[in-house]
Structures are given as structure tokens and as C-alpha cells.
Amino acid sequence: MTPFSQATGNAAANPYLIQSATIVEKIREAEDIDTYRLRFVDEQVRRSYRFAAGQFNMVYLFGVGEVAISIVSDPDEPDSLDHTIRVVGRVTKAIARLQPGDELGIRGPFGQGWPLDAAQGKDVVIVTGGLGCAPVVGAIEYIFRRRSQYGSVKILHGIKTPHDLLYRERFDAWRRHPDVEVLLASDQPHKTWRYHVGVVTELFEQVVMNPARTMVLMCGPEIMMRLGVPILMQRGIPETAIYVSLERHMECGIGLCGHCQLGPYFLCKDGPVMRYDRVAPWLERVGF
Amino acid sequence: MATPCDTHVAAVPKTFLQQLIDVLCAKGYRVVGPALRDGAVMWDTIRQVSDLPIGWRDEQEPGRYRLENTGSDQIFGVVHGPQSVKPLAFAPREPLLVIERTKGSFSALPTLPKSEKVAVLGARACDLAGLAIQDHIFLKDAYRDPYYQTRRDGLFLIAVNCTRALATCFCASMDTGPRASAAFDLALTELEEVFLVEAGSAAGQAMMSALSLAPASTARVREAEQQIEACARSQVRRLDRSPLPQALYDAHEHPRWDDVAARCLACGNCTMVCPTCFCHVVEEVPDLTQTRSEHTRLWDSCFTQEHGYIHGKNIRPTIKDRYRMWLTHKLASWIDQFGTSGCVGCGRCITWCPVGIDLTEELPALLKPSSQAKEKPGQA
Amino acid sequence: MSQPKDHGKPGRPKMAVFKFASCDGCQLSILNLEDDLLALGQALDIAYFPEASSDMREGPYDIALVEGSITTPEDARRILSVRKQAPLLITIGACATAGGIQALRNWGDVEAFKRVVYPSPQYIQSLSTSTPISEHVRVDFELWGCPIDKEQLLRVITDLLAGVQPRLPTHSVCIECKRRGNVCVMVAKGIPCLGPVTRTGCGAICPSMGRDCYGCFGPAEGAHEGPGLPPNTASLAKEFHQGLQLIPIEVLRRFRGINGSVRPFREESQAWEQKDRAG
Fold first, then answer.
1. Within the 304-333 window of chain B, which residues sit less than 8 Å (CB to CB) from chain A?
2. What is the phi/psi pair of residue A154, to 5°?
3. Which H or E run contains C160?
4. B258 and B215 belong to one structural domain
5. What dotted CATH number matches C14-161?
6. Which uninterrupted H or E stretch holds B162?
7. pLDDT digits (tens, 9 = 90+) for C181-208
8. Does the model's ipTM exceed the 0.90 cut?
């Protein structure tokens, strides 16, 4: 019934148990943003760990605590587990000091990923802002591994300044696939910036969309969604074909701690990916 | 669910209670019941019937709780204290893991509570309704909570049907009482001279059989029925659930939120005493040498600053936001989440609010049309 | 916040404990750490702690703990030099964090007090106010309480040693009080308790002993300027007056105590001072 990729968590196990994982590589993406490539220490965990694009892990640092971070890597290569982490709070600030060889803890994967089965046979429009591109990387890789099963792919990505552009090589690589458009927008101009200057939603004008066969995946600031969705709807795309990945305070990842509520939803288990029509009334409400 | 009929209901003299306590102790249970402490009743270990608050009763009103000794020989005259059954299954402070670090590596060891057989003597219908809701949250979803499960599995629940309502009670309007209807093992109804006993589970039935209790007469059963019904009728507070959840969703911009926010202390007492509130936070406390860290779950409240935090901002910065979140969740979004109201009508949030905020008064005020209300119905 | 660095000699970070106007109770809390004090002594080089040892070494230090408030011109100068000696400055206790009980002088006439107490008041150099350290220099972290809670001190030092931003809960005492299974003294006994508007951290000691919280950990959440909601002292004060029948001067005194000069408590006591004067 649900078009979502299902969580693969083992309900019988202790869901609070943390598995240690070694940082095998730390890739600098931008100031205060790094991608950590992790490898589970336990051989068996490494073999059995599976995730769907759009799911997240609770990433743990010894003595500091846990923080919810989306999985960036390709779900078809689960033994290479990537997290792109921006320094925003206490835990991420402490993680930023780690180096290859150090260990992090992992609980997960949790939540509902992108509806990639339901998107088969459709054109996929991916709209992201800032670090919001991280949770869709896995979805893009998934689609490109099964290129023939999907229609056209349009990747629209907005950033504040050209310095904020992450995954430059990935965008370049994606551009080379057949029937793919990659459009970038930066709020601020820069002499080296050869793409659009302005907000990401302005890029909608530059792409042709067939409303009857388009599915939209969105991730980024909520303001981008609130401004972008009405434009997409004017173009004839129904709310039910728009999926967004949302963020609230996630403390447990398993729908028990009560922090990540958005109206009737627990975003850690009902989301983070939600069909837009379900969450639209709640995103408008102050305090929810 | 156990509905009394003559063949299943036993009538026993009041001395039966000590016999029950002794049998439970012999079976390895720690019997926990209401005991007088610091001006209220709190769960405590009961060895003798005399450990129970015989002859006492509680008077509760918004922001006020008082006990008085009536001199009667009623054993369960006190309806309830600030604690529901909640802390016996969902512990206020539960160590989850100990994480030990050696060189660069660490290992996490679960610290499950020791399983303990606990017989709860004197759980009220509202408490059991609350427990059933917590069971749903912690045990019936994709991820079961093994800590809750361990504590919950050890519970043997002896309900006491209410024959007296407090001024703060409104279980009748929530369909959760005054008769125990959620899961229990045994239920007692205390009459003038006898207890009526009925079983609500196989374990309870086995206990009744072991004690070979005499069946109650039809007259006794009717007497108990009448007292319970009278208790329901005597409730002065009620909560009309019929317009929920939508009407409360629609009231998001109602000016009454500002009014209640001016009174609310955001102290979190309502959430702490609520039998269903389940929010919790994990605290990580390492030792000085950074070789061992304790990962402990604590009761949390949606009234705290940290609750609504997402990277660098708070989505519920004001008291208005927090009270609205609490009440809307409790009475409205809970229905969408779990299929029931999050309120069981025990009235504890009314009594234990230091300034006596009464949700049965706030809800009708919030649902009353307001000329200032800006927002029109949203579809949930 | 930066990670403590070693200055000069390799090894453990150097810590100093400085005292300003205070009763030494918070310093005693450090000495009362018992077994943990040994661990602390191993993790840190306690280089300057006159309350504990006559072995006093000069700065700079990595961490300075500061007890006490600023009440003299000399101390107002000395705190500037303390700040320069350590990259991390942590205030310990109500005096250093909020001005302390001696900030009651802020409502009084210090010159008059001097004339009453001292035979030769002209030799007493004293400011007319008692002020928290944060009004004089930048403070990296504040510990509340009269005295501080030793567990909180250990947690903050543990985090700082690991280079982690310390964080302590800011919610009300009530939450911890209920977790501990206490009966509310205000609801069950009608005692005017400050717990609902006071910051957690003490372990709800007073209500656990059947008495009221008197706010020694300061206002919950938004105590100072900055993010966080100032507690709703007005509603609690109104309940003290109307529900518990306290007269305005009694309400005033509830809020004008150990943390009486912190804004939310200060403003509340001033509001009731006006009501008291209005009769």
C-alpha cells in the first residue's frame, strides 16, 4: 500500500544498541562540511547492513551523544557507508575533530526513504537546496543504476554561494548520463559561477515537465518547499506526486521519544520522506 | 474484558486482602500499593494491609491535593496520588547502555533492568487505560522497547474499581472508567463489608482458583454496579471528544492560547504526572577519563527548551507554542497516531498543575468560535 | 569554545580556582568530590587553588574556575587579569553567575551599611553593587547553584577536557522532582515553592526533604539575555498571592533571594515591591 521503501531495522534486537564503525576516509566538502566514509567494525553487521535511499542513521560519538544524519551513499553498495556532516551543534562540532581511523557509533538505518519503486517509469525531478542534496544522492545513484526503468531525470540544486556547492564531481558525472539535466543556482553571483544566479525555484522555468508522468523529490529548507510546491502545482503537478524529506529533532530514531512530531506524524518513522499533501497543512503551522 | 456476572465474581471478606498479599509474596511478587507519604499516596512496597492508607481519602481540585482521615475502615478510599502506573513500566530514569572505550574502539553493552515480579495493588481504571496506551507505544510498533518490556512483563495488575469520584475526575466522559476495562489480572470492588473480586486474565483466574473464593450473590454484584455507576454520574468534569481531532487542529490560531500561555509555567508537571506522556531524552554522561560512558533515558517534557530544538533554532520558543503542542498532541494528533485519545480522564494534570490549569476548561474555550481566530480548517 | 591547550610544560591542562566575594561553599563542593577529586587531580594539574593547597603556581592556566561576585574596585580590576590568564573561564555558583545573596545590597544603601558595621568605615573600599562576573568579562560557561552541584561541575570539566561544548539542562526543578518521585510541596501542602520557575541541577534536594525550592539555581531556561524563554514568574507569583494567600512583601521576598538580581526574579520582586508600596 505504501509506496515507500521499507525500513530494514531488526525489530527483535535492542533498537538502542550502537554498532561501532571506523572512519576509513574523511572528505572535505566545504567549510565545516565533511563526508565520513564508514566501515562497521563487526564483520557480521557489515554484511547484513542494508539501507534504502533517503533513510538516516543515528550517528554516535563516544561521551557526547547521538545525532540523526541521512545516508549519502549508494544503497547498492551498503558496505561503503557515507555521511555528510555539517558542523551545527554540540555533537557535530565534536565529530568534526575526528580523523580516519577514529570510530563513530551507528544505529540504523531508520525511517522511510524515497518512493523509488513508485517512481519507476516516471520522469523524476529532484529539487534540493544547500545540504539538502545529501539525502537524495543515494536516490540518484539508485536511479542511474537502473537507468532504463525511469524516464527523464532533472536535478535542480540551489545554494547560497558558489562556495557551498558540494559533490561537484558527482553533479558533473550525473550530467553525463543520458536524458539528464543538471541545473544549478546560486543566490549570490561569483565570477567563476557559470550557472543561474537566483533561487532554485526559478530553475523550474528552465525545464519541461510532463505533469502526468512526473514525480518530484525535494529536500532542503522548508521555505524552499513552501515556495516551490505552489509553482510546481501551477505547472500541473499534483501534490501527491511531490515527496519531501523533512527534519525535526530526532532523538531516538524509532518513533518512541516524541521529539520529531509534525502534527500526527513522527518524522523519524513516518518520514523523513513524506508525500507533500500529507504534511502541507502542518508545515504552515507555527510551533509544529 | 471481564464483565461481572455471578459465576465469575467472588465476594470475600476484607481479611482476604492480607491473604492475597501473602499469596503474592509467596509467589515471588513484590506487592506495591498506595502508601501515605508527604501528604499524598505514592507507590510503595506493601507487606501488611495496614501499610495501605486505611480510613484516608483524597480531595483534589485544580492545583490542590489534600488528604483527610475519615476514621472509616475503607482501605482504598484514596483515589490516587500523583503517580499513575506509568513509572513502574516506563522508568523515569532508565540506563540504556554502558559504552566502554579502549584505545580507539568502543563497545556498547545494554543495561536491561533486572526482571522483577511486581504486583500492583490498587491500580485505577484510568491508570490501566494509560498503561494500555503506553503498551501500544512501546511494545506494539515496529521497534519494541526491551527496557519497558522487561518491567511490563513483571507486572501483575490488581485494579480497584472506583466508587467515589474526585472533583477532578472525568474518566466517564473518556470511556476509561470508573470500572477497570483495560487489561488487568484481578479487579476488586470495595463495598462496605466485602470485596468483590473478578479475574481479567488467565493469571488472575488461576489466582482466584488457587484461593477457592466463594461466588458473589446477585445482590452484591448489583450493589457494586450501582456504586460504580453512581461514581460515573457524580463526575462534575467532562471532556467532549466528539469534535476532535479536527476542531482542535482548526483552533491553532485561537486567542485562548495566549490566555492560557499567560498562566502556564511551562514547568512540565502535567506531562510528568500524565499516565500516557511518553517523551524521553537520552543523557550521555562519560567519566573523567573518557573510558566509560553511561547512556541513560530520562522522562522529558514538551515544555522544555530542548524538546523543540533543531540545529540552532527552537521551533517552539514560547509558552504558547509549547502548551499548544502538548494539548493538541494529547487530545488531537494522538488520535491520528494511535487511534485513541492521549487523555484518560484521570485529572492529574489539573490537580498537579501548580497554578491549576484545567484542560476540561481550556478545550471548550479553545473550541468556542472566536472573532479573532484567523485560520480556517486545515485538512489533516 | 576552544580545547584546552598545554602552556609550557607538557601533560595535563592547568586549572586555577579564583575566589571573589563569596562564602567558599562552591570551592568546598570541589573538595567534596571525594573519589572524583583524585580523578580530577589526575586529569588536571590543579595549579592554583588556595582554598585547598599552599602550592600556588602562576598562570597562565587552561581553565579558570571563578567563585564569587564583584563587590570591590580591586576585584573589578582583578577579574580582568584572571580573564587574561585563561582561555576558558567558568563561573561557579550563584555569586559568580548571578551576583549572589550579597546582591541584595543593590536595593540598599551600602554607605549606610558600612557606617553601621564598621567603626571606621572610611577604610572600607566597596562598590555599591554586587555584580556577576559576566558583567565584567566574557564568561565561557556558567554553573548555577548555591552551592554548585558537584556532578554538574564534573560534567562540565569532563566535556571541556574532551574538547566538547558543555551542555546542562535548563528546564524547571519540577521535572527532576517528579522523576525522583517526590510529592509536590506546593500542591499537597500549599507551600510557595519556586521549583516551577527555577533551573534544574540541584537534584530537587529541597522538595525531596519536604520543603520549598528557594531558587538557588536561578531562573529556568532564559535566565540571562539571549535565547531561551524567561520563566513565567508572574503567573507563579500571582498564585502565591491569590491561591496561597501570601501578601505582596512575602511574594517579593520569595523572588529576592540568592538569585534576586537575575532579571526574571529581579523584575518580579520589583513588581511586588510596587504592589506592597501601593498597599
1. 307-312, 315-316, 318, 320-322, 324-325, 329, 333
2. -125, 125
3. helix C150-161
4. no
5. 3.40.50.700
6. none
7. 999 999 999 999 999 999 999 999 999 9
8. yes
